[in-house]
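Morning, I've got a small favour to ask if you have a moment. I've dropped the whole record in just underneath, so have a look.
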Amino acid sequence: MAKKGLIYALLSALLFSTMNVFVKLLGTNIPPGEIAFARGLFGTVAVLIIMYVKGIRFSKEDRGLLVMRGLYGGFGMVCNFIALVHMKLSDATILFQTTGIFVFIFSALFLKESIPKGAGKWLCLILFAVIVMVNPFSYDSFSWYALVAILGAALAAAAYTTIRTISKRGQHSNFEIMAYFLITSMFAGFIATDQFVMPQGYDWLIIAIIGGISVVAQFCLTGAFVTTNAVVAQFLQYVGVFISSFYGFLFFSESLSVSTVCAGVAMFIASVMLARLKEQSSVGSGKVIEEKNK
């Protein structure tokens, strides 16, 4: 099972990083919001077909939460696409990895989950790394698109936190949750686009590739989190950073600065340590509950 989860996680990292390359290529001709709309459209058609084949129907419960999850995820995806188009692939990918940290914080605030002891220093390290990357004190190197990437990470975290609330009730299929996300992501992409641009020539092929890759990558990501533990899943999310950095160098002649590398390494170490603390805390809480029930 663990080996299967490892394969799923590596595939999802490779596929999402590859999709980001096509998003950046397409972004020279097509607005990011329109790309998000197209991705949502392709994904919606694919998931609805799967739901029809499997006989999965839309339920009447938690529609408000499902729509909220979709809106959070949809606008988060738009922000991610905007950052990918206007920033280096590596920089945008690293900043979007702060999603895990926002999930950690939102879980404590809204789901009332306890914060493990010792987490404070790792959160401070991540905050420092983000400040180094964004560099808000330098007029020459500061980019507002870095803040867009962080906003996208926060919205994605809000979506994941909402999913956890929904999943605790156990009344919804993963495909139904995905369908709400993809449908509302089309709406988010439409709202975020001032003027739609008619794709030309190879643009249509790239749009189809983005849509196809995103659906398969999403399935792989879901499989990874189902079949492996939190520490491994957190570690493998950062594989996408290195793949994106390689793609950025290969296709866009991008280079990594020393500060970006150091910040990325610091965020990676801190994120893995937070995941370990969270898992250890969950195991400890489970043992306490078992002892009380004896």
